[in-house]
Design goal:
By secondary structure, the chain is an alpha+beta fold. The chain has four helices and four strands; from the N terminus they run H-H-H-H-E-E-E-E. Strand 1 and strand 2 form a beta hairpin. It is globular.
């Protein structure tokens, strides 16, 4: 019986871990997660929100790394509107407020943009982003 438990415990832990990390089940969830991880400066988690087949995957990683090195910012999603969604792709309009957390040269802003999201397995991921408007705040 002890030997069976020793074999089964790691297996059960793997199943629990895998099933708990099922990814982003809605387009909104990945957008909120991306903003959260950007605020936390968690590069690995940010990149988990980006579709691995995105043509800008590597350049996004480089830019996010530079942002994390130079700035201490807060990202807040103010609005999300799903424009179009099917089983594999979603077009989502969003409004994001970006503000500085410490005293340095940065213009707080409100960005209105459109994400194209695609499925990566069962998880939604950001494939591309288009900026529609960038408003600098006082």
């Amino acid at each position: 019986m002890k030997k069976l438990l020793i074999v089964l415990i790691p297996f059960v832990l793997i199943v629990i871990t895998t099933s708990c990390n099922s990814g982003y089940s809605t387009p909104e969830s990945v957008i909120y997660a991306n903003a959260k991880y950007m605020t936390e400066k968690n590069l690995e988690a940010v990149m988990e929100t980006i579709h691995p087949e995105s043509p800008v995957f590597e350049s996004t990683k480089k830019i996010v790394t530079q942002i994390f090195q130079q700035f201490d910012l807060s990202y807040k999603i103010e609005k999300i509107e799903i424009i179009e969604e099917n089983a594999d792709e979603a077009i989502v309009k969003f409004v994001q407020l970006t503000t500085k957390l410490t005293n340095f040269q940065f213009n707080n802003n409100r960005l209105t943009g459109v994400h194209t999201l695609r499925k990566d397995g069962n998880s939604w991921k950001i494939f591309s982003t288009r900026t529609e408007n960038l408003e600098y705040l006082q």
